[in-house]
Amino acid sequence: PTGPFLVLHLIFDVRDAMGANAVNTATERLAPLVESITGGRVHLRILSNLADRRLARSRCTIPLSELAFGEYRAEEVRDGIIAAWSFAAVDPYRAATHNKGIMNGVDAVVIATGNDWRAVEAGAHAYAARSGRYTSLSTWGTDDTGNLVGVLEMPMAVGIVGGATKVHPAAQAALNLMDIKTASVLAEIIVSVGLAQNLAALRALATEGIQRGHMSLHARQVAIAAGADGEMVTRLAAQMVQENMVRIDRAEQ
User: Fold this and answer.
1) Counting beta carbons within 10 angstroms of the beta carbon of residue 120, is it exposed (0 to 12), middle (13 to 18) or buried (19 or more)?
2) pLDDT, mean of each 10-residue run, the chain (253 residues)
3) pLDDT at position 213, please?
4) CA angle at residue 66 from 79 to 138, to 5 degrees?
5) Euclidean distance between CA atoms 17 and 161, whole angstroms
6) Longest C-alpha distance within the chain, in Å?
7) Distance CA 187, CA 174 (A)
8) Cβ 148 vs Cβ 142: under 8 Å
9) Within 13 Å of residue 38, how many CA atoms lie on the same side as its CB?
10) DSSP, res 135
11) Can you tell me the distance from the alpha carbon of 205 to that of 101, in angstroms, rounded to the nearest whole number?
12) What is the DSSP string of 169-201?
């Protein structure tokens, strides 16, 4: 609708910074030079949150023998997880919720370390649609011996210097707790948490259903809202879940 235009990509290694300010400053400084070379006018001078040159990857292998629990056989759990992932891989409606579950884990660490969760979210979902079709960020399958194998790859533009990360005491405490020395290590931890969160959700979906875990958490919140504290919260929540009556009026009784 606006006619032909030229897009210039500036590839900038920002090391241990998230890099937004550095990249934006560089693009603004370079604009006059680009205009002098092209004879045109530079319009937008800003970074892209699709940081596909800054990918982080995590991989896990879970022995088949570790997957059995309760009434569920190991093969049943493994195959159910893979089937649930396959659904997300081909259906964008399922993929949206599948990836949201991954981001439940990712965002928690990003926020705790003072990084920009909105930028990470934007990059993740754009990366999930890079083929022209929105799909799963993770992949699940088996190795040669039948063990469950999961992989998560996504852009992870996070930093440990500059911005809130460097000045906010809670962010510093989180980085110290994890003994983070480089942004790349932080990125690896973040995607590992995302993959673990994805596994937990797929396991629940493939077996007992997601609501059991959700309702257990909800029951605790209802118990607290009803005035319970300490050990009573756990006992009251368990009773409401067992009765399948997670309601504030029942908790108050």
Assistant:
1) buried
2) 86 94 95 95 94 97 95 95 97 97 97 96 98 98 98 97 85 95 97 97 85 66 82 81 78 74
3) 54
4) 50
5) 5
6) 77
7) 14
8) yes
9) 14
10) -
11) 12
12) HHHHHHHHHTT--SHHHHHHHHHHHHHHHHHHH
Buried b / exposed e across 71-83, counting CB within 10 Å, b at 16+?
A: eeebeebbebbbe
**How many alpha carbons fall within 13 Å on the CB side of residue 83?**
10
How do 148-155 and 55-62 pair as beta strands?
antiparallel
Q: Which fold has domain 55-208?
A: 3.90.770
Q: Amino acid identity, residue 197?
A: Q
Give me the torsion for CA of 93, 219, 170, 138, rounded to 10°.
-30
| Nearest partner of 241 among 209, 210, 208, 217, judged by Cα | 217
Distance CA 189, CA 56 (A): 9
Amino acid at 148: L
User: What are the start-end ranges of the E strands in the chain?
Assistant: 55-62, 138-142, 148-155
Measured CA distances, 192 to 70, 105, 172, 181, 225 (Å): 26, 9, 20, 17, 34
Please indicate whether the domains covering 1-47 and 55-208 agree at the CATH topology level. Answer: no
Task: List the domain boundaries for the chain.
Answer: 1-47, 55-208, 213-252
What is the rounded CA–CA span in Å between residue 35 and residue 40?
5
> For residue 80, what are its two tokens?
């159910």
Whether residue 201 contacts residue 85, with contact meaning beta carbons closer than 8 Å, is answered with no
- Tokens matching residue 163: 């911005």
Please answer whether residues 119 and 110 qualify as being in contact, where contact means their C-beta atoms are separated by less than 8 angstroms: no
Q: Residue 24 CA to chain centroid, in angstroms?
A: 25
Phi, psi (degrees; rounded to nearest 5) at 176: -65, -40
1-47 in CATH: which number? 3.30.70.420
